[in-house]
Amino acid sequence: MIAATYLCVKDSGNTTPFQQILDAVGSAVHRKGISAWIEYNAPVRFVKDKPLLNKAAWQELDRDGILADFSAHIAESGMDEMKWYMVAATENKTESVWDYTTAFDNLFKKLEKNNQAELAKEMRAAYDAYLTKAIKAQLQPSQAA
């Protein structure tokens, strides 16, 4: 998953490597833990079992800095220490930690459709930032503060 994160950043947000991981593991592992790890460590979110580029997270990434020293990024982010299986649920399916994604996406789309694109953009950024913090708290409870 670390390599897939690198490839996503290197290949302009390509999420195919994450889909290939999920395809390869099939139902042999708890997919919720994998999807939570990916959403926390990569600019990706899941919608209907598919990894999609999280545009808000993508825009905030220092892609050149990450690619210049990916080892330092790994160490700084702690992604090599984060264990996806620690958040695995008893139910074995890919599940987004962005539970309300569809409802919020629909709200944002309605705002954009009604000439409120700036408001939708600000709300989406705030929503993504809040959920990123919530994911971090779930995956690394001792470092969430």
Tally of domains? 1
Low-pLDDT ranges: none
User: What is the share of helical residues?
Assistant: 55-70%
Q: Which overall shape is indicated by the principal axes computed on the Cα atoms?
A: globular
Can you write the helix and strand succession as a string?
HHHEEHHHHH
Computed structural class: mainly alpha
In the sheet with the most strands, the strands line up as 1-2
Main pleated-sheet profile:
2 strands, antiparallel
Number of helices: 8
| Average pLDDT, all residues | 81
* Strands, count: 2
| Radius of gyration using CA atoms only | 15 Å
**Distance between the amino and carboxyl termini:** 25 Å
Strand content of the residues, in percent?
5-15%
Layout of SSEs?
Elements: H1 2-10, H2 16-25, H3 31-41, E1 44-47, E2 50-53, H4 55-60, H5 63-68, H6 70-77, H7 101-113, H8 117-139
Helix pairs in contact: 1-2, 3-8, 7-8
Distinctive features:
145 residues, mainly alpha, 8 helices, 2 strands, globular
Describe the structure.
The chain is mostly helical and 145 residues long. It has one domain. Helices cover 59% and strands 6% of the residues. The protein has 8 helices and 2 strands; from the N terminus they run αααββααααα. The chain has a two-stranded antiparallel sheet with strand order 1-2. Helix 1 runs antiparallel to helix 2 and helix 3 packs across helix 8.
